[in-house]
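@channel sequence for tomorrow's demo:
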Amino acid sequence: MKTSILIISCLAILIFPACEKEEGCQDCGGSILDGYLFNEVATEDLTALGTIEDIEVGVCIRYKLDGSGFNLESVKVVDDCCCDQ
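structure tokens (generated this afternoon):
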């Protein structure tokens, strides 16, 4: 019984700090309350976003929706940690 509690406690110590946000990730330039969404760019997004500077697969972007697609005027590359919001 004591061994089980000890193992669970050790796992909790390892897991919970890993969920904390990295420092420097507070200013992503908007939030869902401001109408912004965050997403990691996928290959299928490149056709819609290809005209925006610094867009490549795997970068994190902040954007607003224009109907069901990206509002291209609102798309901005942001820190990777902003995608974790």
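heads up for whoever presents: The first strand starts at residue 37 and ends at 40.
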